[in-house]
Design brief:
Number of strands: 0
Number of helices: 6
Order of helices and strands: HHHHHH
Shape: elongated
Radius of gyration: 17 Å
Helix content: over 70%
Length: 140
């Protein structure tokens, strides 16, 4: 993901002004998508505060993250919905790519990505704070 972003920015010197705008839109959506990934990571690790062994949710998230290199349009509607609305894989990767290749409009994508990123971040921070309040050390 980082390599793709760097390659797009590096090659922007040969693009027209319109293409440079697309690259900047792509980078902005990727950064906002990373916020969604961070928030969702907080959501998946927070149950570890209540359970002694709470590795299952982060492992499930990593499993779904393996779908990241593939466009979500390749998958059936049910999996596409899961990758977009439940696990933010499409938010961080596929939607920015769709905007870059002209398959989706920037402003609509920005609303979707920013909305889900804000929701994931708020819920992640909320769950993490609740977990910190309930935290009990196991050991000395």
């Amino acid at each position: 993901m980082i390599f793709l972003t760097v390659a797009l920015i590096w090659s922007a010197s040969t693009f027209t002004a319109l293409s440079l705008i697309l690259v900047l839109q792509f980078v902005l959506l990727m950064i906002i998508g990373l916020v969604a990934t961070f928030g969702f990571t907080l959501i998946t690790i927070s149950p570890s505060f209540w359970a002694v062994s709470g590795n299952a949710l982060p492992d499930i998230f990593r499993l779904f993250w393996e779908f990241q290199p593939y466009p979500v349009k390749l998958f059936p509607a049910g999996i596409r919905c899961i990758l977009t609305w439940i696990f933010p894989v499409a938010i961080a990767v596929s939607i920015p790519g769709s905007v870059f290749f002209g398959q989706m409009r920037f402003w609509g994508a920005l609303l979707i990505v920013a909305g889900i990123s804000a929701l994931d971040l708020i819920l992640g921070l909320l769950f993490f704070r609740l977990g910190l309040k309930k935290y009990q050390s196991v050991g000395n």
